[in-house]
Amino acid sequence: MIGVARDGREGVEKAVKLRPDVVTMDIHMPEMDGITAMQYILDLTPCTIIILSVYSRKGALITFEALELGAFDYVTKPEYLGPDEMEGLIRKLKERILASAMGRSRREVDLRDTAPSAARASETDYPYRRAVMIGASTGGPKTIMDVLQDIPRDFPAPIFLVQHMPSLFTSSFAERLNQKLKLRVVEAAHRMLVEPGVLYVAPGGMHMHIEKVIGKMQLRIAIRSLPANTAFRPSVDVSLHSLAENLPAHMIISVLLTGMGVDGAQGMTEIRRKGGMTIAESEQTAVVYGMPKAAVEQGGAEHVLPSYQIGKVIVKEVLGYGV
């Protein structure tokens, strides 16, 4: 640590003077709030900024605004900070700081051999042409926005999104995506029927299973606490496995974006083995090259693409033409 500031204004002054690689700051500060201070710092001395946010609905909305304005990531802090809570907060901050270092050191990759294959036509009795599953963690909210901005309103496929995020944040995240994207976006709910052109955000703290309606060519969502032995809840792997069990593999497009850990790599590998299309974000654009890297190393990534190409490739695969 090279400096400490008592408020937002002093934080800007210290950042300009000390030029740190990483700044951690609270959203709520005297003299100058965290959002304003962050914008000054990014303009005057660009660096990685990690936001500390209150674990609340209002905190979620401000956090997403910070992410859109350029924050690297966020850490939620509980209202009560006892010794155990403080230890957990410090551990999370250390993880994010190390992740930001990984992001700054990533190298350029060769993308010449990553062009997608021709679209595979499929005639089924399902009310949608394909189904898309997207998984993300650290750095995901902004990347997801970039990827999905290319998806048209009348997209003939449902999209399932598993973003590692606290339970109080996912509903606000879904609302924000619904305001920003052409697609209709909802937080997934138990027994919700799956429709084309809708983006379903997995609720925090629970797993989003996709299951088939008995006797019908129709999918629905099941929200469950099990399995309990997963590193994350929601888990990308849990959702991917359930989708692979209930939909023909050639109808599935699986995407893994930036994030720490390996969640989703196993499920993506299964999808590819069964004949589905799989896309991992490349190291070139991934904020943290963890989850997509694991998929590549396990052989689960058919295509490795920078984030700005992924949405266009999905549209071309489903609709047969570009955007």
Tally of DSSP helical segments: 10
The H-level CATH homologous superfamily of the largest domain, spelled out, is Methylesterase CheB, C-terminal domain
Q: What is the string of SSEs from the N terminus onward?
A: HEHEHEHEHEHEEEEHEHEHEH
CATH architectural grouping of the largest domain: 3-Layer(aba) Sandwich
Q: What is the CATH T-level topology of the largest domain?
A: Rossmann fold
Decide which structural class fits the backbone: alpha/beta
The biggest beta sheet, please? 7 strands, parallel
Give a structural overview.
The protein has 323 residues and is an alpha/beta fold. The chain folds into two domains: 8-105, Response regulator (Rossmann fold), CATH 3.40.50.2300; 131-319, Rossmann fold (3-Layer(aba) Sandwich). Helices cover 38% and strands 19% of the residues. It is built from ten helices and twelve strands. It has helices spanning 8-18, 34-44, 57-69, 83-105, 140-148, 167-180, 236-246, 265-274, 291-297, 307-319, and strands at 22-26, 48-54, 73-77, 131-136, 159-163, 184-187, 198-201, 207-212, 219-224, 252-256, 277-281, 303-305. It has a seven-stranded parallel sheet with strand order 6-7-5-4-10-11-12, sandwiched between helices. Helix 5 packs across helix 10 (307-319). The longest helix has 23 residues, at 83-105.
